[in-house]
Every structure is written in structure tokens, then in C-alpha cells.
């Protein structure tokens, strides 16, 4: 990344921490990163963990003159936060990671004609394995989009969309998705314990299984469905387990859960 680029994070919580970690791991100059965070303890922890970055309680101070202003606060406080940045001069690209909040709403608060990228990362960003969906509004210039892409790319893969509505689906799939996978891992661990395994062994096997299956599917030319059939010996054990999942309507349940998440994403837009 060109060292002239400066990035300001408004909100120094979990996701901001992940993105900052990715940028630093990729060699980004820490002195080109500023973070505005209201909580003094969080500010101190950030400054300690990430020597060189500048922390402040003042959102405008952090955002002033930054090439990219990352809006990393909860959707519920976005209106107040964005309105507080309304007087900033043009020139920055605003990169929102908030669930649901549309570019149109952001422009209402930040000012019309603002260059805005709406994105949806996920928590595996913390270890560089993130999956992010992103949309750039028409005011975003190619160089600004490239800067947003480099920031998001620092923590994993990025998929760009021409239609902003796709972001609600992305939120329901990869944004919230790590929680679904963790739920399955928790259930596998509990099932293993019930079958007599020691808790630490059950957790380890559940984690390694999720990790191994995911890596295999990523590397393989076979679809997940084909890989599933390769585990499932006719008349064997997997067939019995999958029969229980299908009878219980697991696929329908997952689809319903994702519809609920996407609906909540649309609601959070406040439109
Ligand atoms: N967690 C996830 O898996 C994902 C979250 N997101 C989105 O990322 C955004 C941030 O989520 P996450 O990092 O989990 O949340 P966090 O609560 O960890 O981070 C939000 C941070 O914003 C700070 N904050 C609150 N009010 C203000 C303000 N007025 N000005 C500046 N900072 C403020 C909070 O401080 P304090 O704690 O003191 O209130 C907190 O440190 C959300 O919009 C969420 O939708 C996107 C993808 C995945
Ligand atoms: O639960 C949420 O609203 C956020 C957005 C996606 C993941 N966490």
C-alpha cells in the first residue's frame, strides 16, 4: 500500500481491531493509522497492542485528512457518528462495515455526493481468513475503490457487487456465518461428550473436523455435495447421521435462519 495513504477508524472495537491487525501484518505503516474510540480503557489497550498508531476520543480529529475513514461502529449509533463527520471536506472515501446501513442512509448523514463503500467483513479477518462483500456507490473513484479493496484484502478475500442489495445476503451468509459454524462445532463437541469422550478431546476433534472439512472443500475440485457422498459409505454410519439431519429439516432450518438474518439487515437500514 502506498505510504501516503492514511486510514482512520471510527470505533476501535472487534472488527476495527481485526482490520488494523491485518493492515499491520501486511506491512502498513502504523503511524498512518488513527483510531477514534470513546472508551479510555479500549484506547489504552489499542495503543499498547499496536505501537505507533494514533488513538483519540475525537472522531473528527481522527477522520480529518484521512484518505479512508472506516466506519466501524454499531448500526444503532451510525446516524449520530456519521452526522458528526458531515462537516469534513470532500476527498476521503468512507468505508462502512456496519450491518444493514445503506449508502443512501450514510449519504443522508455524511452529506450527498460522498464517496462511500459499504462492506460486510467477518470475524475470521482476525487471522487473515476473512470473507468480505463490498459495494461502491457511484461517487467512489477508482483510486478510492482500490484503497478500500486493499484495506479489506489485508484480512482475507473480497467480493465486489454491482447491486448493493446483495450485501443483505452476504451479511446473512458470511457476515453472520462464523456464528453458525461455531454453533455446529459446539453441538459436535456436546455430542462427543455425551458419547463418552473427554471434553478437551471432543472439542479438539470437533475443531479439527471443521477445519479439515473446510480446507478440503476449498482445495478440492469436487463440490461439497460430492465430498459429502465420499464420506457416506452405503449402509454405514454417516448415512444414519445424515438421515437424522434431513428428517429434522436441517436445510430448511438453515434457509429460514438466513432469511431472518437478511431481514434484520434490511431492518437495520432504517429505510
Ligand atoms: N462482529 C462481527 O462479526 C461483525 C460486525 N460487523 C459490523 O462491524 C461494526 C462494529 O462491530 P464490532 O466491532 O463487532 O462492535 P464493537 O462493539 O466491538 O465495536 C464498536 C466500537 O465503536 C465504539 N463506539 C461507540 N460509540 C462510538 C462513537 N460515538 N464514536 C466512535 N466510536 C464509538 C464502541 O465503543 P464502546 O465499546 O465504548 O461503546 C466500540 O469500541 C458493526 O456495525 C457490525 O454490524 C460487520 C461484520 C462482522
Ligand atoms: O450480528 C451482527 O449484527 C453482526 C453483523 C454480522 C455479524 N455480526
UniProtKB/TrEMBL annotation:
NADP(+) binds at residues 10-15, 72-75. Catalyzes the reduction of 1-pyrroline-5-carboxylate (PCA) to L-proline. Pathway: Amino-acid biosynthesis; L-proline biosynthesis; L-proline from L-glutamate 5-semialdehyde: step 1/1. One of its GO terms (biological process) is L-proline biosynthetic process. Pfam families: F420_oxidored (PF03807), P5CR_dimer (PF14748). SUPFAM superfamilies: 6-phosphogluconate dehydrogenase C-terminal domain-like (SSF48179), NAD(P)-binding Rossmann-fold domains (SSF51735). Its EC number is 1.5.1.2. This is Pyrroline-5-carboxylate reductase. It catalyses: L-proline + NADP(+) = (S)-1-pyrroline-5-carboxylate + NADPH + 2 H(+); L-proline + NAD(+) = (S)-1-pyrroline-5-carboxylate + NADH + 2 H(+). The gene is proC. Residues 6-100 form the Pyrroline-5-carboxylate reductase catalytic N-terminal domain. Residues 164-268 form the Pyrroline-5-carboxylate reductase dimerisation domain. Belongs to the pyrroline-5-carboxylate reductase family. It is found in: Cytoplasm. The keyword Oxidoreductase applies. GO terms for cellular component: cytoplasm. NADPH binds at residue 59. PANTHER family: PYRROLINE-5-CARBOXYLATE REDUCTASE (PTHR11645), PYRROLINE-5-CARBOXYLATE REDUCTASE 3 (PTHR11645:SF0). GO terms for molecular function: pyrroline-5-carboxylate reductase activity. InterPro entries: 6-PGluconate_DH-like_C_sf, NAD(P)-bd_dom_sf, P5C_Rdtase_cat_N, P5CR-like_CS, P5CR_dimer, Pyrroline-COOH_reductase. The keyword Amino-acid biosynthesis applies. It is an enzyme of class 1 (oxidoreductase). Keywords: Amino-acid biosynthesis, Cytoplasm, NADP, Oxidoreductase, Proline biosynthesis.
Amino acid at each position: 500500500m502506498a505510504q501516503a495513504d492514511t486510514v482512520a477508524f471510527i470505533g476501535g472495537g472487534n472488527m476495527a481491531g481485526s482490520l488494523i491487525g491485518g493492515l499491520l501484518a501486511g506491512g502498513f505503516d502504523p503511524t498512518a493509522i488513527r483510531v477514534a474510540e470513546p472508551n479510555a480503557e479500549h484506547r489504552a489497550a489499542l495503543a499498547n497492542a499496536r505501537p505507533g498508531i494514533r488513538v483519540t476520543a475525537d472522531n473528527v480529529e481522527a477522520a480529518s485528512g484521512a484518505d479512508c475513514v472506516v466506519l466501524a461502529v454499531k448500526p444503532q449509533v451510525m446516524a449520530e457518528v456519521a452526522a458528526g463527520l458531515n462537516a469534513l471536506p470532500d476527498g476521503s472515501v468512507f468505508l462502512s462495515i456496519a450491518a444493514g446501513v445503506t449508502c443512501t442512509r450514510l449519504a443522508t448523514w455524511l452529506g450527498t455526493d460522498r464517496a462511500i463503500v459499504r462492506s460486510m467483513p467477518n470475524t475470521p479477518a482476525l487471522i487473515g481468513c476473512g470473507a468480505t462483500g463490498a459495494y461502491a456507490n457511484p461517487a467512489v473513484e477508482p483510486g478510492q475503490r482500490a484503497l478500500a479493496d486493499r484495506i479489506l484484502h489485508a484480512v482475507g478475500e473480497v467480493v465486489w457487487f454491482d447491486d448493493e442489495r446483495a450485501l443483505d445476503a452476504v451479511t446473512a451468509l458470511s457476515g453472520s456465518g462464523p456464528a453458525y459454524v461455531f454453533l455446529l462445532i459446539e453441538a459436535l463437541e456436546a455430542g462427543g461428550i455425551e458419547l463418552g469422550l473427554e471434553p478437551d478431546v471432543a472439542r479438539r476433534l470437533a475443531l479439527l473436523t471443521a477445519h479439515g472439512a473446510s480446507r478440503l472443500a476449498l482445495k478440492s475440485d469436487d463440490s461439497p455435495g460430492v465430498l459429502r457422498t465420499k464420506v457416506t459409505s452405503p449402509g454405514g454410519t454417516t448415512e444414519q447421521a445424515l438421515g437424522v439431519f434431513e428428517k429434522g429439516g436441517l436445510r430448511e432450518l438453515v434457509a429460514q435462519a438466513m432469511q431472518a438474518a437478511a431481514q434484520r439487515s434490511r431492518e437495520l437500514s432504517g429505510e
